[in-house]
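User: Thanks for the earlier help. One more: Molybdopterin-dependent oxidoreductase. Can you show the sequence and predicted structure together?

Assistant: Of course, both are below.
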Amino acid sequence: MTRPEVRPRPRERTAPPMPRFRSPLRGPWLTSVFGAVLLAALPLVVITGLLDYVAYGAGQSIPGDVGWLHLPAFDWPTRPSWLFRLTQGLHVGLGLIVVPVVLAKLWSVIPKLFEWPPARTPAKLLERASLLLLVGSILFEIVTGLLNIQYDYVFGFSFYTGHYLGAWVFIAAFVAHVALKLPTMLRSLRTRSLRAELRTPLAETRPEEPDGEIGLVPTDPAPPTMSRRGALALVGGGVVFVVALTAGQTIGGPLRPLALLLPRSRTPGGEPANDYPVNRTAAAATIDPAATGAAWRLDMTGGPAAQRLDRAMLLAGSESLPLHTATLPIACVEGWSTVQTWTGVRLRDLAALAGVPNPGSAFVDSLDPGPFGRVTLTGGQVVDPDALLALQVNGADLSPDHGFPARVIVPALPGVHCTKWVRSINFRAA
């Protein structure tokens, strides 16, 4: 007699243990409020960031090899002179200011990251993929951006290339997520009145209505420990706090010492004329003091009348090489900017003296052996009437940290390209 075959029971698919999210504040309305703020702010952060990469200019290796993701090249204008100060200030400043809102938005949607099963339909799979890419890319952009303004080149990769590629991942995920969730956000915003919520105290705070498949409202909410207006005030206070810690980098004045989030741009001290931010000191750039002393010469090539001038000849001024003074801003990729009064000789006058009256570009080389010790200027940047080889600032000689014996200052040019410790300029005809 044979025994009947006993087949093992199929294993039941059970959800893994999940954390319990019971905050009665979570729900589509509060998430949509944070989302609306980010929807208004993040495109501006993205656009100004991409404009800044254009400002760095073609052929400067910023970013590196990114294939077809390179933006179309065009000559970055020199007017208005504060253009790069505006775009970079908005990119870094607004990018820091929205961090509390980003964290609040992540807190509000964290139950979705633990949803089980992960996806029931192709549409849900697309939504979840866009959410994961959105969260991962925005955290990558925030972390790399903060590290870049806090520390000096701590990455094992090019910050510019990594941040640029991360931005495109974020853009793709952001567009997909907005396309999928915008109708839900608009409907959710209409379910409650912001004015009414700002008047609702803790004692009257209630969970939002069940939200079905959206899945943000807890099924077993805990008693509230904060009202929605308290949550909004907390996030708003975080924004104000970040503004107080960053605005001084762009505005200057008495607010600059409060800019604790950007310590790389601390002022070097010394005489008042040179008491403004510096990113890389002469020591950090390994500049040999002997090379900037009496032996220093400026070589100008590219035309039929190559020249070699010492600093005294540049400072003496002449009919063909007059001194010129201009008040111009200088703005850095880390977000700080300052306005100073610079004195030197016009780049277009140097080009004419070298036999290139109509320069199409200029290659500037410096004593700095690092990646930013050389720059290619466009023809428009060379011939701008305020584009200078600066020798003095605010009536005094440049300090060693600010580029003595000479540095480039061009209106609206990124600070990273206002090359310090210049030793040669090769002017190229148009």
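User: Great, one quick takeaway?

Assistant: The chain has two domains: 28-253, 289-429.
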